[in-house]
Design goal:
transferase, alpha/beta, Hen1_N_sf, seven-stranded mixed sheet, metal-binding, methyltransferase, single chain, EC 2.1.1.386, 479 residues, Rossmann fold, 2 domains, 16 helices, c-terminal autoproteolytic domain of nucleoporin nup98
Length: 479
C-alpha cells in the first residue's frame, strides 16, 4: 500500500518537521500486520514528497485479525496492495504527532493551511469515482479519481472496484491526515479489525472541525463504524452536540446511488478532467438557522435578547460578537450545558465591555423567573420539542404570559421533512418528545398567539422543499 504527500510551500522540506520524519533517511516502523516505511522520493526547497509504504505480511495479518472471516478470506484478498483500514492504522501510528497538529520546531506552520497533494494509487472505492468526489470535495479538495481497469490488455473487461485518487488543496496538514484516516475505510467499506466502542472516540477525535458539518456525515459514520447501530447512534449524537444541531444529526446520504446527470454536457465519472474544481462547502443547517434568527432579531430591532434553552451557547456566541445587540442572556435547565456554554464563550476571560453585556444562569422554562423579564426578544431555538407535551402550557405561560418580551422567536423541526433523511426511523434525536408537521406547528402557534396577545408569522429555515417544506420551521411572534 502506498500513500504520498506532496507540498510546494517554501521551504518544502519543512514537511519533514511537520511529519517528524527526516527527509534524508528511510525510517521503518513495525506494525501488527506488517511493516511501514517512510521515505522521501523528492526533497527540494521547491517541492517535497513524503511516501508511506505499507508492506503487509499475510501471516501476521491472519494472526492479528479479530473479525470473523471466510476460511480463505485471509489468504485471498486485496490487502497486500490496496489502501484500506490497514493503511489508516499505519497512518495513526506513524504520523501520530502530525495528526495532532503538533510540531516542536514548526508550530506556526503546523497551524497554517499549506498547499498539499495526496495520492493513493490503488484505493478500493465502493461507489466508484463519484463516491470519492462526494466525500472529499465538500472538504475543499480538488479531486481526480480515475478507475483502475481490470486488465489494460483487455479493456472490454471494464473497470475494477479500485481508483487512483489524487486530492489537492490548501489545508492544515493535520486536517488533511485526519480526513484521509477516516475516509479510507469509509470508501473501502471494510475494516480489518473488530469494531470496539473506543472507535467512536477515534472518529470524533479525527473528525473534529469537519465531520459534523459534512453533508455525508451520516454515511461516513455508519461505514466507519461498520453499521454497528448502537455505536452509530452514539457517534451521531456526539456529533450533533458538538455542532449544536440535534435535529440534523441524521442526513440523507446518497453516496451509493447511481449519479444522475442533470447536465448532458457534464463529465462522466471516469473523465480525467472531472472533479478538478472543488465545490463550495455547503452551509450547515445549524448555521443557516442561527443566521435566520439573527436576521429576524435585527429586522425586529431587538437589542436586548435572551436565549431560553441556550444549550452549548452557539447562538449566544454570535449575539455577543455583534455589537448591535446591547445585552444578551442565556438560560438552560442543564448545569452541564451551562458549563459548556461558559467554555465556548470564555466567560471567565471576556473583555470587560463584553462581560458587561452578558448574563448566564441556570433556570427551568416551566417556572416564572424574574430574570426572564426586560428583554426585547426571547429565542427558543430547537427547544420546545425537548419539552414533554403536558408541560408545554407551563412554558407558554412563563414565556408569553409572564416574561412577555416584545418578540418571541421559536424554531422546531418540520416532521414532514424527515422523509428526506435516509434511514431515519422515529424522531431526529433521541431526546425529542415530539416533532410537528407544519399544520401542527401552525395550530399551536396560532393558539398561543391568540391567547397571549401576539401575532405570528412563519419563516422557512433551510431549503424549502416543494413537497415536504423546509427542514426547520420558525414562528416569529410579535405583540
Amino acid at each position: 500500500m502506498l500513500l504520498t504527500i506532496t507540498t510546494t510551500v517554501r521551504p518544502a522540506t519543512d514537511l519533514g518537521y511537520l511529519l517528524v520524519k527526516h527527509p534524508d533517511r528511510v525510517q521503518t516502523f513495525a506494525q501488527s500486520f506488517g511493516t511501514a516505511h517512510v521515505f522521501y522520493p523528492d526533497a527540494s526547497p521547491g517541492r517535497c514528497t513524503a511516501a508511506l509504504l505499507l508492506d503487509v505480511d499475510p501471516i501476521k495479518l491472519a494472526k492479528a485479525r479479530k473479525t470473523p472471516d471466510l476460511s480463505l478470506g485471509q489468504y485471498v484478498n486485496d490487502r497486500p496492495y490496496a489502501a484500506s483500514s490497514l493503511l489508516a492504522s499505519a497512518m495513526a501510528s506513524v504520523f501520530r504527532t502530525a495528526m495532532r497538529g503538533a510540531s516542536r520546531d514548526r508550530a506556526e506552520l503546523a497551524a497554517t493551511p499549506i498547499p498539499l497533494e495526496i495520492t493513493l494509487p490503488a484505493l478500493p472505492c465502493r461507489g466508484g469515482p463519484e463516491a470519492a468526489r462526494r466525500l472529499f470535495e465538500p472538504l475543499g479538495w480538488r479531486v481526480t479519481a480515475r478507475p483502475v481497469p481490470l486488465d489494460p490488455e483487455f479493456p472490454q473487461w471494464g473497470d475494477s472496484r479500485y481508483v487512483t485518487l489524487t486530492i489537492e488543496g490548501e489545508l492544515k496538514l493535520s486536517d488533511a491526515l485526519n480526513q484521509v484516516y477516516v475516509l479510507l475505510p469509509v470508501l473501502d467499506d471494510s475494516k480489518h479489525y473488530w469494531i470496539a466502542p473506543d472507535e467512536v472516540d477515534k472518529l470524533i477525535r479525527a473528525g473534529e472541525g469537519w465531520l459534523a458539518a459534512h453533508p455525508e456525515r451520516g454515511r461516513i459514520t455508519r461505514r466507519y463504524l461498520a453499521n454497528r447501530r448502537g455505536l452509530v447512534r452514539t457517534a451521531l449524537a456526539r456529533l450533533a452536540e458538538a455542532d449544536d444541531r440535534p435535529d440534523d444529526a441524521l442526513d440523507r446520504d446518497p453516496i451509493d446511488e447511481e449519479p444522475v446527470a442533470s447536465d448532458p454536457t457534464a463529465a462522466e465519472p471516469g473523465d480525467a478532467e472531472a472533479g478538478t474544481e472543488a465545490a463550495a462547502p455547503p452551509v450547515p443547517l445549524a448555521e443557516r438557522r442561527i443566521q435566520t434568527v439573527l436576521d429576524v432579531l435585527r429586522a425586529e430591532e431587538a437589542r436586548r435578547v435572551i436565549d431560553l434553552g441556550c444549550g452549548s451557547g452557539r447562538l449566544l456566541s454570535r449575539l455577543l460578537q455583534d455589537p448591535y445587540f446591547r445585552f444578551v442572556a442565556g438560560a438552560d435547565v442543564s448545569p452541564r450545558a451551562m458549563m459548556i456554554a461558559q467554555r465556548r464563550l470564555r466567560a471567565d476571560r471576556l473583555p470587560q465591555a463584553q462581560e458587561e453585556r452578558l448574563s448566564l444562569f441556570t433556570a427551568a422554562l416551566t417556572y416564572a423567573d424574574d430574570r426572564f423579564h426586560g428583554y426585547d426578544a426571547a429565542v427558543l431555538m430547537e427547544v420546545i420539542e425537548h419539552v414533554d407535551v403536558p408541560r408545554l402550557p407551563a412554558v407558554e405561560r412563563v414565556v408569553f404570559g409572564d416574561a412577555r418580551p416584545r418578540v418571541v422567536v421559536v424554531t422546531t423541526p418540520n416532521a414532514e421533512h424527515n422523509v428526506r433523511y435516509e434511514g431515519l426511523t422515529g424522531f431526529r434525536h433521541p431526546d425529542h418528545r415530539f416533532e410537528w408537521t407544519r399544520a401542527e406547528f401552525h395550530a399551536w402557534a396560532g393558539r398561543v398567539a391568540g391567547a397571549y396577545g401576539y401575532q405570528v408569522r412563519y419563516v422557512p429555515v433551510g431549503d424549502d422543499d416543494t413537497e415536504v417544506g423546509p427542514p426547520t420551521q420558525m414562528g416569529v411572534f410579535t405583540r
